Amino acid sequence: MEEARRRAEEALAGIYESVEEGKGFVSFIVPLERLVEAAEALKSAGFDHVKSVTAVDRPKEGVIEVTYHASSYGDPELARGIIGLTVRIPRDNPRMPSLSRIWVSAEFQEREVFEFFGVIFEGHPDLRPILLAPPIAELRPLRKDFVVKEEPVYRGPIQKVEKPP
Amino acid sequence: MASGELKLSGWEVGEVRRLPGMDVKKIGRDLYEIFIGPQHPGSGHMRIIVRLDGDVMVEVDPDLGYVHRTMEKLAEGRSYIKVIPLMERMAILDACNITLPYVEAVEKLLDLEPPERAKYLRVLLCEINRIASHLYGMGIFGVFLGHSTMYMWPFGDREVFVELAERLTGARLTHTYAVPGGVRRDVPDGFTDDLRKAIRYMRKRLEDYRKIFLDNPVIRARLEDVGVIPRNLAIELGIVGPNLRASGVEYDVRLIEPYEVYDELDFEIPVFEEGDALARTWVRVEEIRQSLRILEQVADKLDKMPREGVMHDKFWAKAPKLYKDVYAREGRVKLMPLFATLRVPKGKAFARAEAGRGEIVYYVESEGGMTPYRVRVVSPSFRNAIVFKYIAPGHRLMDLPAIYGSIDYFPPEADR
Fold first, then answer.
1. Do B256 and A148 count as a contact with CB atoms less than 8 A apart?
2. Can you tell me the distance from the alpha carbon of B400 to that of B227, in angstroms, rounded to the nearest whole number?
3. Which of B6, B9, B312, B338 has the most C-beta neighbours closer than 10 Å?
């Protein structure tokens, strides 16, 4: 993990704004306009694939946070670490450049983030819903304002108890 | 018969014809668009849209989502303990592997580590699950190739391991065995002896599989050099599990970032260079062999250890006396009431594990409440689905079942 972190810091020097420590990963927060540059730097540093494109909706701050959790297959030293590349994009205009030209492994997952959060990945080769039917995808189900209504528990018809004579 | 009566008209461009199991649309002279599925011989539902030139696939579009169950959304409204049985529904036959990284992520947030014996018990069930999962995948592969013996043998042999899992956890599938802080039960009496018997039996059976399936000239002709994924492409596509290792990449989470007690066990990671469908099948067989080796060591270790401590002390201390009595008598722990109101400290955690079909990753974010703020899960099959799009084109249509079966794609796991 330490080695991966050092190598990522080296590659992203001057690009990232801040570092966020998670348990089991380190995330570098980059400004939106430098995301592609940062991804290219990470890729050439040996982080060759994306494990997860994780989006989190934060309505209080008015942002959607998209993190690419990248790691390596080719280099066992880097494989021990998980490096996150995070951007925060406005909730009301969620547009960001697609990284699936750099990391092909992100292609299907970006489609997933698109349908669940409505994030538009500019330059994505094939941006369509992948898991959901298009009318459901319109609802952006993983945003926090989509609330799942739990069904009430059915306890059977109310039975009248006859008074004994 | 007059020639006019039997109307054998040509197939017009744009016309759709229904064939058994698929819809075929002619999109040009010698160009066809086929919708295969969502019902097909494989396990679970998934549609593949194939564009064919003659019988060569030129474009393959995997259409996922037929068994999507909104797990990530549902998890946001459930208490931490209830997320485990929810996530298990991805791959019920691989339940312990599939939920283990979630449990580990929650443990990372709670900052606790399960006791030694609980870790061994987790590994025990994980390896039993891995064998069952590989046998299931190989059985389905047999169905795809029309090799009915290879369907029936692994499904029958899988029963041995499902039975063991049942004796260990109380459920054939969906065990909910690993819970934050430990496991739910200890091994019943005489379990390790039966386990050793099962290991001996399975070793013998692997040899039978080789003879009837892997070294079968018909099967080899259908699998060799089919669906070849070169090493650099495997890395680029980010595929996982046996498919990755069949392409010469030595990556296994158990090796790279050993979780539980994998660093204390002696086993190898089978890696093949060919990257074709046959190599992917061989990796599964060799992995079963290695899992048997792990199980042998775990059985020895469990026999030597005193039968105590399957739950972290922090939780165990709060257990009522009745619980401790039941554990002393029967070796099982009832889920303690504290799990219903378990609060997890604020934080973000990322965990991974090697499930039967490959690496599974979880991202869990807590705001300090009783339900997670966000659970992100990427299952191995979802990451393997990209193979259809980038590897299948160029092959003949008859190779599609071989490719599908060899990557052990499991729709319920991919769709989540």
1. no
2. 9
3. B312
